[in-house]
Records
---
Amino acid sequence: MSRLELRHVHKAFGGLDVLADISLSVGAGEFVSILGPSGAGKSTLFQLLTGAEHGEGEMLFDGARLDDHGRHFAFMPQRDALMPWRRILDNTTLGLEVQGMRRQAARARVAPLFAEFGLAGFERHFPAQLSGGMRQRAALLRTVVQERDMLLLDEPFGALDALTRTAMQRWLEQMWRHHRWTALLITHDVREAVFLSDRIYVLSARPARIVREIKVPLPRPRSLGGDAARQASALEAEILDIILNPNPSKRTRP
Amino acid sequence: MISAGLLLLAWELYATYSGIRATILPAPSRVFEQAMLNREALADNAVPTIRATLLGFACSLSAAFVLSMLVDFFQPLRRALFPVFIVSQTLPLVAVAPLVVLWFGFGLAPKIMLVALVTFFPMLVALVEGYEATEAEIGQMLRAMGAGRWRIFLLARLPSALPYFFAGLRISITYAVVGAIFAEYAGAAKGLGIYMLNAKNNFRPDLVLAAVGVSAALTLVLFGLTVLLQRLAMPWERADRETAGKGAWR
Ligand SMILES: Nc1ncnc2c1ncn2[C@@H]1O[C@H](COP(=O)(O)OP(=O)(O)OP(=O)(O)O)[C@@H](O)[C@H]1O
Ligand SMILES: [Mg+2]
């Protein structure tokens, strides 16, 4: 059963068509990725979902129209958006405080999760004192503790170095198996999408439309060796081909 | 510090050995000596200047804060009000100061007004631009969390403006002292400005310079206070420079 459903969503900024025609769905407990080139309009899609911008088309959550009043999403912006002036603990409680929880109660709720997120001992640090990977985990912690119906993750690891990014992807996959969040992830890293997702939507360049929907049949936990890894590489190659050669008919032309 | 010392030394040597008269250019040692001899009069005249500076600055600060919030919440206000304030900044103090004294007398009021006039706009601009420097993503995230405009202002826009606020404060506090002295120069019963004027008219450049020294010291102290205040208000700034916790990526 699908929780989030978009039908023919369209968005233009002034005369600039950004989203041409987006239809997609995300089921309960499903991890879905949106994969597309830079500037395609991926972040714009999240702006529509969080109500920062308005577009045309239908957006449904649990069958009901998505409007500004229902708060279904916990949103993690493209940059970590940690507040430099708040200590890590107080950054992670932000969503709960906005929901009206007392600061002490919010802290008590979040503090036990610091170990699981690899942040134990850094509660009293300021964001500038953390490494890039730790900042992303803090931002993710701030996102998941809101206990909303669904996570919206906009390129959570885009700014990290390759080594840290791989470590974070493994960590997130493990966390997801444990928590089974319903999640929609934006990325332009093919390997990341294949490694983390149950399904992938491949977007075209701007104006974005969905070029292909790909199921990822790989078993979980996602492994890095053996048969599954070969399957993953084949899938990655196929997706890359779709992105880099959007018009197969033109490929043979001189 | 060193450059200031060298400058003083050069000045001392020049004043002593060039044969220039002390009524034109007194040596620093003489200025200091006279400052000590007249310290009661100097202190007596510094008090009204300090009072005018602080009161005027407090007024302009509160006004700038209230107005900056209004401008932040109602953007059209910005276009309506800013031209007026920009014009207010182009008025030459030399012309305005005597007029304000003429209209409002020799008391405290015209001094407060002049200090406020020179410091208000820089503070307003600092605050308004500080609010606007808020990271767009933080705003979007807070809105997605369900925060309203007021909440977003308090949680994100106000703290984001702090570095701009303190930059503005450091500049304005020096303007404030100059503004107060100018106002006194144009007419006052007491104050460093009128003290300088009287000393000049009595051919006592040493006392003029002594008063200048007092006002410079006053400015430095106020400047130092704003730096201290910033340290206290923005503890994360210093944390930025420490490297604790770096390099742990697992
Ligand atoms: N508020 C806005 N006003 C006007 N144009 C906008 C606005 N937001 C985004 N755009 C434009 O929409 C296009 C898509 O932007 P978007 O941020 O959605 O891309 P993206 O797919 O997230 O890219 P990236 O992978 O680099 O983050 C860009 O050309 C951008 O200039
Ligand atoms: Mg983006």
Note: Confidence is low (pLDDT under 50) at residues 250-254 of chain A.
---
Amino acid sequence: MKQSIKYVSMILGLIMAGYGFADELNMPVGVTEISRQVYGLHMTIFWVCVVIGAIVFSVMFWSIISHRRSLGYKAATFHESTTLELAWTVIPTLLLVIMAIPATQVLIAMYDTGGEDMTVEVRGYQWKWQYKYLDDDYNQTFSFFSSLSTPKDQIENRSIKGEHYLLEVDNHLRIPANRKVRFLITSEDVIHSWWVPDFAVKRDAVPGMLNELWTIVPETGFYRGQCTELCGKDHGFMPVVVEVMEEAAFDTWYAQEVVAAAVREEAMSKTFSNEELMAEGKQVYTTFCASCHLENGQGIPPVFPSLVGTAMMTGPRDEHLRLVFDGVPGSAMQAFGKQLDAVQLAAVVHYERHSWGNKAGDITQPRDVINLNSGQ
Amino acid sequence: MSEAISAVDHDDHSHGPAKGITRWLFTTNHKDIGTLYLWFSFSMLLIGGVLALIVRAELFQPGLQFVSPDFFNQMTTNHGLIMVFGAIMPAFVGLANWLIPMQVGAPDMALPRMNNLSFWILPFAFGMLIATLFSEAGGLNFGWTFYAPLSTTYAPDSVTFFIFAVHLMGASSIMGSINIIATILNMRAPGMTLMKMPMFVWTWLITAYLLLAVMPVLAGLVTMMLFDIHFGTSFFNAAGGGDPLLFQHIFWFFGHPEVYIMILPAFGIVSHIIPAFARKRLFGYDSMVYAVASIAFLSFIVWAHHMFTVGMPLAGQLFFMYTTMLIAVPTGVKVFNWVSTMWRGSMTFETPMLFSIAFVVLFTIGGFSGLMLAITPADYQYHDTYFVVAHFHYVLVPGSLFSIMAAVYYWFPKWTGKMYSERLGKLHFWFSFVGVNVTFFPQHFSGLAGMPRRIPDYALQFADFNMVSSIGAFIFGFSQILFLFVLIHGIRNGKPAAARAWEGARGLEWTLPSPAPYHSFTHPPKVTDDEAHA
Ligand code: HEM
Ligand SMILES: [Cu+2]
């Protein structure tokens, strides 16, 4: 029994050590007012548990040490006490009522949406996030996808893992400091969950539902989190990265992006060269397609078909476009028409038709994509 | 009544069991069926354990080493399903079969043929479930909670076999619980009033009602999935006007009572073992019964605490936060009563007692983390991280599983007529105890540090916790081989056990010889105050 005392005190010691001395063992305090309050609740309920645990376990271990037959201790015969039963029903209940008060207050504060300075729609996809900046009338000003940028080589242990291994993305979300940012969270396919621990902000992205959240972050910097709802194969590989910027810097960036979006709109009517399409296509393919069909187009049959030398790759171009545009309902093949613009769609289809030995020998332009849909 | 039963038995097989394999295939005997359940559960524990070790091996270091992300998801999914439905639940049903007739003074279960059926369904159900791992369409990969639409629109084709397997398991559980209720309500020896029933019988009576209430809900849920997948309905498909959250509400309406189904019989077991080795009656028997009943009631109105982050209205969040905090009260009452039972007892620390004490301590730690999870704003941070994984493994492994092991050691002499080796039993205990804590304690930390659950690879700051956790998992896993050895060694070489194998053991089963006769009580025993619980 000495041993078990040792272990339990070791465990308790570990908890204390963890909470007292090493931050990495505890929940991060975070950087927002709400996250600090949540941390406060966490520590309060933790210490409530520690105190109750200390009382219960010391009584128990006292008994284990002294009330043993090997010491010749004779068993008492008492076996009930209404007073005690009442006491240990009522006292914990009161404790919990007291605990419920601050918890309720924080929860109400968290639900205080409205009065926001700006709104970002966060949309989950297998396996990336899309961020849409909305104007005051909730029209989209511009949007982009954010997916994991950690190289495969690091994941497959062929090269040294970087500092932000698995917590880095190609395009991160940017928000201004000190402004109330509202997030509208939803999903395009399965359920995901958007979490930034330092903001104490976590909400499920549910298809067909728009969840509301908000935050005000006083400190600039990079904040990292992950998808926290199992969403299929690459659930572990869709991080959330948010940069909080000085307000002025943010406004400049925002204005640039709005212009860039307009320029992009214009590109829809441009004619591209084979090289331009292949370069853009490769980039789109790597971000959007390669997680299932693989970098070399071989896929993972039967679930994720190969794209090498199949009829689709060299057959009628419009069918190929249509498939990428609409996806295959009921499968992991998404309707990319909703995610990519005409330039990207044209480029990626062109790329697929002319890579890994595929030789369709045609060219696909953004206007083909636009025609495809207006012809419908 | 028992005269009639023993007369019928005389015609069939006058003295003891049939010989050979037919004894097991056609048996209607509660002890044989109990044995089948227990060995079945043990084999599922080993299979589920292997899957867990594959998971822990992959998580030993950051990076992908052994398995692909999809296979990883298949491992976590099947591990959860096999452990919950294949290891824990059948073990408790096996214990119920062995013990309830003996504890209420009956010759056998009330519905022996149905008893046979409810066991023999299980190997088929799990055969089918495990076979999906080898299916060409790909194994089940949507987690043991199988949230739609990941488990419907986006599921591998093998999901249909899963649905059928769940139906079979549900049918088995429903039949099992009807049988247990019928036995307890009809076959108690004269004089054993409800408030004199042993705690194990009480907890199982309530558990059986919980099962009856929620297994049909689970069956309905998987049927809705089946319709969504094959018959064009859209219960859970937002694009068709359905609601993915409907799935979660139904699942957890089943799921939360289900977690109590996996712990109430454990409460019963520990309430036998602690008094026996403290040589003192259970403290607060009445309040123990009321606590179990209130837990059972509350377990129906807390389900959405699993869904705090889905985006419920504020009022809903508050309701489920309060009820969840409330359920900790009767849970605490149980712990306080066990400690008071030990207080001023005359304790010895044989293997069953060691497991029971570890149960009280470690289950309480799991209860504490449960209380933390109940605080909704804090749960936003904990939800779907390793903190939750640590919580439910603390209540289920050193909780439910340790209680099952305690029960096996405690009643082993009654079942086999032999004594296991106390030295080996203690060795098994210490390895399990250390293994369990080394595995699951660091998971609190990785969860608080922000590691999501169900991921095959993780950021570098979680590396140390995961390495420790994996080492613990292998210690725990291999110590269960030792368990198997202790059992076989005891059955073969154990010293003969007395009828009352433990000095402090009370209850009707200890008035029977060891091993207990094939048809427990052919004449109803007299229930003396000494053997009854109040
Ligand atoms: C004091 C009593 C308890 C309280 C207050 C409590 C509370 C909670 C809460 C709030 C969650 C949801 C956490 C989240 O997903 O964010 C949870 C999860 C869970 N609890 Fe408990 N719990 C208690 C006891 C138990 C017991 C006795 C068991 C089973 C033996 C159990 C098994 C589970 C399981 C299996 C899950 C997670 C299921 C999953 O998501 O896979 N809990 N608990
Ligand atoms: Cu629950």
Note: Residues 1-14 of chain B have pLDDT under 50 and may be disordered.
